[in-house]
Specification:
The longest helix is centred in the C-terminal third of the chain and has 19 residues. This protein folds into 3 domains: about 70 residues, Winged helix-like DNA-binding domain superfamily/Winged helix DNA-binding domain (Arc Repressor Mutant, subunit A), CATH 1.10.10; about 130 residues, Nucleotidyltransferase, domain 5; about 130 residues, ATPase, nucleotide binding domain (Nucleotidyltransferase, domain 5, 2-Layer Sandwich), CATH 3.30.420. It is about 35% helix and about 20% strand. By secondary structure, the protein is α/β, with parallel strands linked by helices. The strands form 4 sheets. A 5-stranded mixed sheet has the order 6-5-4-7-10.
């Protein structure tokens, strides 16, 4: 089943899939916001019977996950009761492990940030020191008296194995290769942990969350968007048909290691003329327009390859000069566009830590 952004997603009236059907309903309520939705609309959009929706709502209400949002205006009959997601009923934590900085947030089910902390991090100090720093950060943002915590989403530099929760040979930090970061964090925290690349978390945070849903029978929203992260490294997160694309080996998105200049300067990966080494060199000499141009050239390659419709920029280098990067990338994309109009270019509205929390919450709403 294609479950891209904006599509009508079908439920099934089978007891064995009760949890999935509940997730469909919760996702629709999340998308509706405080205004909520009526039972009839939920049934129409999911394809479930009204009776099945009513039973689901009883169970969700008993768990404190939904509440009444008032009544819809009457159209001649009895006003419909509207229901909304109780966003504060569960929390999640997102952590961004950058090469030199750590940031953690606690969010509610709607993605609202309730607490956050940030500080320096030496990724080169090795796994033990970094794990200890993550455990401390999670402790700082957690509320022991608060609602249940669903888990922790951890975003780290790639490459890594998202499915196994194991780190790969991070460029510049080979000692991390093979370290089971997810398993170790779960042991220390006593919570479920999801591990993913920082750029995938950025893509999750940059995408529409919650996603909009059309009326029942509406067409699925297709398309591709890319999140480009410029900080201590240069990477990309891809969203294809509304879902984060990781690749068969969790290796998609190594944007920074595409070669833009043959026989150029040596990159940390061992190749020459990579987008990352060229961009970071421009940043180091405070030539941000040139850094933006390099990011734009790399982005134009992705646009030509994948027909990307939206380019989202993030990371602290972008945050320090967003106008420079948006205008620079936009100019390159416009100049190299093979079709019109060129892709939209925007700055990410949230950070990687928030995106990591969204990835952790995704299965709660039937997403990946």
């Amino acid at each position: 089943m294609n479950r891209g952004s904006g599509e009508t997603r079908g439920g099934v009236n089978l007891p064995a899939l009760r949890g999935y059907n509940e997730a469909l309903v919760l996702d629709l309520l999340r998308a509706a916001g405080p205004a909520g939705r009526g039972r009839a609309e939920l049934a129409a959009r999911t394809g479930l019977t009204p009776q099945a929706v009513s039973k689901i709502m009883v169970r969700l209400a008993a768990e404190g996950l939904v509440a009444e949002a008032g009544r819809a205006a009457s159209t001649g009959g009895k006003p419909r009761t509207l229901l909304r997601l109780e966003a504060g009923a569960r929390h999640a934590v997102g952590v961004h492990l950058d090469r030199d900085e750590l940031r953690a947030v606690r969010v509610d089910l709607a993605g609202g940030v309730l607490a956050e902390c940030a500080g320096p991090l030496d990724f080169g100090a090795g796994p033990d020191a970094v794990v200890a720093a993550v455990v401390r950060a999670v402790g700082r943002v957690c509320d022991p008296a608060g609602p249940p915590l669903l888990g922790v989403g951890a975003a780290a530099p790639g490459p890594l194995d998202h499915r196994a929760g194991v780190m790969g040979r991070v460029t510049g930090f080979p000692s991390w290769e093979g370290f089971p970061l997810r398993e170790v964090l779960e042991g220390w925290l006593g919570l479920p942990v999801l591990l993913d690349k920082d750029t995938n978390a950025g893509a999750a945070g940059a995408g529409p969350a919650p996603r909009s849903w059309p009326a029942a029978g509406g067409a699925a929203e297709a398309g591709a968007s890319v999140y480009l992260h410029v900080a201590s490294g240069l990477g990309a997160g891809l969203r294809l048909d509304g879902e984060v694309y990781r690749g068969a080996r969790s290796a998609a998105g190594e944007f920074g290691h595409q070669v833009l200049q043959l026989d150029g300067p040596r990159c940390r990966c061992g190749a020459r003329g990579c987008a990352e080494v060229l961009c970071l060199a421009a940043v180091a000499r405070a030539d941000l327009p040139e850094a933006a141009r390099i990011v734009g050239e790399g982005a134009a390659n992705l646009v030509a390859l994948l027909d990307v419709e939206r380019v989202v920029l993030g990371g602290r280098v972008v945050a320090a000069a967003p106008e420079v990067f948006v205008s620079g990338v936009r100019a390159v994309l416009a100049a190299r566009a093979l079709t019109q109009p060129p892709p939209e270019v925007a700055v990410a509205a949230t950070g990687v830590a928030e995106g990591a929390a969204q990835l952790l919450l995704a299965p709660f709403f039937g997403r990946t």
